[in-house]
UniProtKB/TrEMBL annotation:
Domain Nudix hydrolase: 1-125
InterPro entries: Nudix_hydrolase, NUDIX_hydrolase-like_dom_sf, NUDIX_hydrolase_CS, NUDIX_hydrolase_dom
PANTHER family assigned: GDP-MANNOSE MANNOSYL HYDROLASE (PTHR43046), MUTT_NUDIX FAMILY PROTEIN (PTHR43046:SF14)
PROSITE patterns: NUDIX (PS51462), NUDIX_BOX (PS00893)
Signal peptide: none
Pfam families: NUDIX
Family per similarity comment: Belongs to the Nudix hydrolase family.
Record-given protein name: NUDIX domain-containing protein
GO molecular function, one term: hydrolase activity
UniProt KW keywords: Hydrolase
Species: Bacillus salacetis
Cofactor(s) the protein needs: Mg(2+)
Amino acid sequence: MGMPSVGVFAVVRNQADEVLCVKLNYGSGNWTLPGGHLDEKESPVEGVQREIFEETGYKAKVVNFVGVYSAPEKDDIVLLFRAEILQEGKFLPNKEIVQIGFFPVDSLPKAMHPWNRERIKDAFTHMESSLRVFERAGNG
């Protein structure tokens, strides 16, 4: 068994408290949260901000941490963050994401995995958690 892979995802909310979701262009074709796997030597915060930008065109900043998720049948863990929009983007459909949209938490798209509904609910209900980012030692 190698190391479990780490997935990083974010609940990004707009002024109307709607959640930014992305529709996959492969597999299930479901709606999900922006995110993906970390690159080598990338921190979870850097990684999720990069994924949000790559998938949606939106620049966002992580504001805090929601929780850690794992499923016994999958060799991975998921870190879920809360992020806010710094700059609206221009979305272009691509091989990964066919569409993006903002949805109120009580009317999320039907084509969404139950796990993602739960994660979104967590981001709206469990407000307190700690996120500590240690700066790299030295100057680079």
